[in-house]
Amino acid sequence: MDAPATERETDLREAARIVVTEEPDEAVHAADGVPVIAERRRRTPLLALFLSALGGLASLALGLSVERLVADLFEAAPWLGWTALALVALAVAALIGLVARELRGTFRERRIERLRQDAIDAIAVRDHEGAKALAREVARLYAGREIRRAGPAVADVEDEIMDADDRLGLAERTLVAPLDEAARRAVAAAAKQVSVVTALSPRALVDVAFVVYAAVKLLGRIARIYGGRPGLFGFLRLARAALNHLVVTGGMAVGDSLLQHAVGLGLATRISAKLGEGVLNGLMTARFGLAAIEVCRPLPFIREVAPKLGDVAGDLLSRTRDVA
What we know:
Blueprint: H1 2-16, H2 25-32, H3 46-76, H4 78-125, H5 128-141, H6 164-200, H7 204-225, H8 232-249, H9 256-263, H10 273-296, H11 309-323
Helix pairs in contact: 3-4, 4-5, 4-8, 5-6, 6-7, 6-10, 6-11, 7-10, 8-10, 9-10, 10-11
């Protein structure tokens, strides 16, 4: 009788064994109905690594060729070697100056961008101390420039109890608004120039080249109006920001609809095709200038009204109506 009991006890012990296995988190989340987000694997920046290595090799090759050139000139004639060495030193000094200017311009542009974003955040959360510090920094940005509009200065209301938007609005009205007027005039002049030149030019390639040239020149002028001094890389960052702003706000719309919206319904069909192209190019230049104002301004539009297309292209549109 003991043997069968022993077999039953063995079977019960075998059945009572619990095997614990660890399931991966993906399986647990999938069982619970929670979507699994696969962890993105970090890829090796092969393109950046390739370009860096290629740039390093090009720099080494250039340096080695210059060193050989100077050595050969020293062997040919000492005065030729010293002349080449002086030219190399001059080129290195100029390169250092260019790099320093690029860095200074980039840091200044980043400072303006940070001011604008910090102002947006301070107004959103009603950060009074942050608004006070931002108003002081904007005043320091334009210290030494005779641009202040009539009204209390930022330093005069330092100890006053004011809301964040009121304090920054005061800085905007007294320091930035006069610059807005200069920027509007620059955009209006560029739009008018583009309209006239593209209306008279006989080639479409000339139109495109002049529009690009005018946009580049206008962006640099607006950046300087608001205190920026962009170098090459800083200018490229500003241009990308302005184009992104145009895309986000829908300002890249082209075609007859933009012309009819700005000039008047049906007017595009009553003017000559070449004049219509000139007006459209002028309007697109003005639209790009408005986007440049948005990205170059150290403060968002708080109390001041953002300029519209009619504010900077009103003369252009009125002349077009007269022709029509």
